[in-house]
Amino acid sequence: TNIVQCATTIHPPSGISSVCESCFPLGSRIISRVAYFIDYQSGLIPMFSTIQPARASVVNRIFTPRVAFQNVGRGSLSRLPPCRRALIIGIWHGEPRESRFQPLNHSVKYSSTVAHAATEKCFVTTPVYYVNDKPHIGHVYTSTVADVYARFQQNMGKDVFFLTGTDEHGLKVEQSAEKRGVRTQQLADENSAFFREVMDDMNISYTSFIRTTDTSHKVQVRHLIEVLLQKGFIYLGTFEGWYDDGQEEYYTETKAKEIDYKSPISGKDLTRSSEENYYFKLSAFQDQLLSFHVDNPTFLTPTARRNEIINRLEEGLSDIPVSRTSFTWGIPMPGDDSHVIYVWIDALLNYITALNLGTESLGTEAESNFHSKEGLKGYWPASLHVMAKEISWFHAVIWPALLLALELPLPERVHAHGFWIREGKKMSKSLGNFVDLEVMKRFSDHYGLDGFRYYLLTEGPVGSQDANFSAARVHDVYSTDLANTLGNCLSRTTAMICKYYGEGAIPSEISSAGKRITWEGFDWPTLTAEAAADAMRHIEALELPKATSAAISLVTRVDLFISETAPFRMAKDELKAEELGAVLYQCLEALRIACVLLEPIVPEKMKEVGASMDLGSGPLETKVKWGGLRPGDKVKKMNIFPRVPALDDRGFPV
Questions:
Q1: Which of 290, 399, 450, 521 is an S-S bond match for 313, by CB 3.0 to 4.6 Å?
Q2: Cβ neighbours around 158 below 10 Å, total
Q3: Alpha helices (H) along 267-325
Q4: Around Cβ 337, how many Cβ atoms within 10 Å?
Q5: Predicted confidence (pLDDT) per residue in 492-505, tens digit
């Protein structure tokens, strides 16, 4: 029998209270478990084992085989599945070798002996948006934040799958259709198409648009619920308590009393409810979820959301309904058509049904065919779920519990941003302060789509605080950062090159002696490297205002450089021809790097810049290295962010 020995990377916890007997120590903090694969010809069942030491996070990107998914629908929940990705560090035949371990580090360069996918995968999602009403600034903002992250990861050279879509079942959709006097499916079709159109108009670069009325999704949801039924995680019971009609969320008497029997989102009264439901045993995961959030501080961001969730988890968990009987617009429960699956369970499962993870059968035949059918499954677990804060509980507690029950790996990160408000008040149609599609279109037409997008990303509620939408701030941000800084600096630099050098030929920073010409206080290779590192770190952390600030600060540094070196005066002195060329090269090269950093933020405008000068090729880390511009290549004069007058709060001229 041939034996293949594999070692997996372990991301060790700060302390380990217990380790299974088959684990062995490697140093004071590193542990591993050796797994063996038995040759199929031996007639034995291939086996693979992973460990979950107490409070350890085991990274789980395992490339061959993807056994993390072979347990879907069978076996007991004996361990907390991993939430991070793992790499197989070595695969070899013969005698055991020393296992190699390292912290999770995306900058690590792997040798040819490492078994890994050609391109690292990255799965980014928005929520599926509810189709009972039209899109608004909240939907656009969430999608834009996710879009920036997806574009950034793609620029980093990763294989990105970006998912968005629409949530089309539930009582509110049924009621909205009744009010309009149309079939529910017709309403869902119309509004889903509208959401998709808005995503396209707002230049959201999604890979796939899922609808929860898709046949594939419905079939997989029924299968996954059947798995949970068979595993004993779902049972029939009766709910007595309170219901938030707007959020379609249940509350116990105790919790309803704490919030004064009013919806924490809409402020409307909760409805007393008594209904027979199927329940999911959420309470069974109380300790695991609490330990998980305590031990994984980067899973739920920003930190304020994590603290809120931990506080609620410490109060204890109750089992939750997963079906309804008071309406019919939904996916029928397996084996009981009198119940439809609760809309939130239906919606959450879209993240794995979109990747066809709910298609596995319960038998060994499906397992044997698993690898040939993997397809999109390699993108799980999700790298990032982006949403607004009101649904963080569903994504940080209920969703992980469902995945634990299904024995699937947990997402790497959930980010729940704040709300857009106006003049300190929550936006609502009744107050007339809502930023709807018509208002957004007027702003994006006036400032350009990327100009408006830049405002949303730099002033938006990406962190724990809500953000105030202000027409005055839209104008100030556009004028200051884009028109007067980036746009003006690109314009004056390219204008000087086109004026002083034939047909806009880019000059050189190298002297006739073969050395770079430099100026004290302007070490551009270092300055640009620091700005690039800052911008990339901040985008990875979804600190988008800081990311844009890193790029724009580089541009302001170029402005200062022009002021101090005065190239327009150098141009009048033939003895300073080399210095003039070096100044203009360094200005344009620094601007090129700033523009590369801004590509995920203002993608269409950076395409315009790319049409006027070469922004470079390859992954982001290559493109931001100093020296990308080649002397002699041509550049055109640019005017990408023209100055415009201000608008009022409804998007009309002042």
A1: 290
A2: 18
A3: 286-295, 303-314
A4: 9
A5: 999 999 999 988 99
Flag residues of the chain having pLDDT under 50.
Answer: 1-117, 361-373
End-to-end CA distance of the chain: 81
Q: Encode 15-50: b = buried (16+ Cβ within 10 Å), e = exposed.
A: eeeeeeeebeebeeebbbbebebeeeeeeeebebeb
* 3-class SS string, 522-570: CCHHHHHHHHHHHHHHHHHCCCHHHHHHHHHHHHHHHHHHHHHHCHHHH
Decide if 629 contacts 614 (C-beta within 8 A). yes
Please, are residues 55 and 17 in contact by the beta-carbon 8 Å criterion? yes
Token pair listed for 412: 């790497």
Whether 304 and 316 have beta carbons less than 8 Å apart is answered as: no
The percent helix, strand, coil of the chain (3-state, each to 5) is: 45, 15, 40
Residue among 478, 531, 503 at smallest CA distance from 612 = 503
CA distance 320 to 239: 9
**For strand 208-211 and strand 159-167, is the pairing parallel, antiparallel, or unpaired?**
parallel
User: Which H or E element spans position 208?
Assistant: strand 208-211
The tens digit of pLDDT for each residue in 594-645 reads: 999 999 999 999 999 999 999 999 999 999 999 999 999 999 999 999 999 9
Which two three-digit tokens encode residue 11?
């991301």
Q: Which two tokens stand for residue 472?
A: 């005055």
Cβ atoms 128, 167 nearer than 8 A: yes
Please state whether beta strands 249-251 and 208-211 pair in parallel, antiparallel, or not at all (unpaired).
unpaired
Q: In what order do the strands lie in the sheet with 249-251?
A: 249-251, 234-244, 271-280, 320-321
- Match 């300073």 to its residue by tokens: 576
For residue 623, the 8-state DSSP code is: H
Q: φ and ψ at 318, to 5 degrees?
A: -110, 155
Phi, psi of 347 (to 5 degrees): -70, -45
Question: Strands 300-301, 414-417: parallel, antiparallel or unpaired by DSSP?
Answer: parallel
Whether 352 contacts 44, CB under 8 Å: no
Residue 616 to residue 24: CA distance in whole angstroms = 48
| The pair of three-digit structure tokens given for residue 40, joined into one six-digit string | 């199929």
Contact (CB, 8 A) for 53 and 23 = yes
Cα(341)–Cα(332) distance, rounded to whole angstroms? 6
How many Å separate Cα 307 from the centre of its chain?
A: 21
pTM of this structure: 0.79
